[in-house]
Amino acid sequence: MTARRPFPQRILIYGVYGAGKSTLALELSRRLNLPWQPVDELTWEPGWKEVPMPVQRDRIAAVCRRTSWILDGAYKDWLDVPLAAADLIIGLDFSRGLTLRRLLRRTARLISTGEVICNGNRETLGSVLSAESIMLWHFASFGRKRRRMRRWAADSPGPQVRLFRTPAELDRWLEELSPVSPARPRP
After folding, report:
1. How high is the pLDDT of residue 1?
2. Distance (Å, rounded) from C-alpha 91 to C-alpha 13?
């Protein structure tokens, strides 16, 4: 009988805006009883004021020094930090059409409900129509993030990489994991 290897304890979820990184992070946190650290909470202050990059790096490094964590994304200016510490990278390599539809639906819901996203920040019609729109970020980053994920999956010298090209592939993989554990509070 072969001993089962323990499941990775430090997980980076990577993909474009609208891929479902935060939704997956919450699900994995519940199933695996691992702490999820939403990246937006570390990178945005109230009023959508971006945290200075050196401070972002320090905050991410502090998370990555822990024995277990799930991060729901990574910015290029500090991507090296979780890559050096992660046991597993999960790449959500979904189509542009799917991710854009999800992003539009989520953004419309957030605007209409006024739901707080992080640190008191909310999506507004003004923010969506601004030069810093999450929609523009989606288009600007899609190809770059896709190429990066595929490169990691093809030849990762570091952590294990699981690349999912459809939500159905991801759902099948999730079904193989342990059953859902009781909710664990975020750090």
Report:
1. 46
2. 6
Helix axes 134-154, 96-113, angle to 10 degrees: 140
Q: Cα separation of 147 and 144, whole Å?
A: 5
DSSP assignment, residue 19? S
Strands (E), the chain: 10-15, 36-37, 44-45, 49-50, 69-71, 88-92, 116-118, 121-122, 160-164
Q: Identify whether the C-beta of residue 39 lies closer than 8 Å to the C-beta of residue 110.
A: no
State how far the Cα of 94 lies from the Cα of 144, in Å rounded to an integer.
13
114: alpha, beta or left? (left if phi > 0; alpha if psi -120 to 50): left
Global pTM reads 0.90
**Could you give the C-alpha distances from 25 to 47, 52, 73, 113, 126, in angstroms and in order?**
25, 25, 9, 22, 28
Mean pLDDT of each 10-residue bin along the chain, 187 residues long: 71 97 97 96 95 98 98 96 96 97 95 94 89 90 96 87 97 81 50
What does the pLDDT read at residue 64? Answer: 98
From CA 56, how far away is CA 60, in angstroms rounded? 6
Q: Residue 155 — left, alpha, or beta (φ > 0 → left; ψ -120 to 50 → alpha)?
A: beta
What is the distance between the alpha carbons of residues 16 and 94, in angstroms, rounded to a whole number?
9
